[in-house]
Please model this.
Amino acid sequence: AQTVTQSQPEMSVQEAETVTLSCTYDTSESDYYLFWYKQPPSRQMILVIRQEAYKQQNATENRFSVNFQKAAKSFSLKISDSQLGDAAMYFCAYRSQNSGGSNYKLTFGKGTLLTVNP
Amino acid sequence: EPEVTQTPSHQVTQMGQEVILRCVPISNHLYFYWYRQILGQKVEFLVSFYNNEISEKSEIFDDQFSVERPDGSNFTLKIRSTKLEDSAMYFCASSERGILSNQPQHFGDGTRLSIL
Model:
């Protein structure tokens, strides 16, 4: 079974600074997807960024980028130029690539609560 | 932008009672999911649903739980005889089936279930 570990329960960053959230995972599969979801207080989880394991290039979405190290099974999220609206719980998630079936369940980490200080 | 909606936002129920949590997935989505998050713990997969049947379920999803898509829009999770340990936030999600299997799951706001 796959597991996802987020070792930082809480992180804080100054507005306009850069912060990196850590995520490691354990799997025996070679093909899979990795996601970062953001959950603002009392709001729904929103997809921030996704990475296909077969792609060597790190995914980037505006101020959000990942450092995907497949051999190390590491998938960290970097937030550049942090904004007050980035304050949220961030979840790392893993999903198998099972193109022939319907196994699309997500396996989540425990989350990292990010505080952005003005 | 279309959203997954869940009702109620908070449900308080006596232990042993039945509870139904409701979800309206995004209209063109074909895969539906329930997850739960016990306070302070990970978000855990419960069940996935496709083509009017369960496609996968976790060990948590025992006979106490059931899911249903009673009409073309709602997707419900029923807990038959609630226990104290069922207290959690329950999230519904849906995803679009497409050629690209990296289609993300879209989540609702969640229903906080409190068992007394």
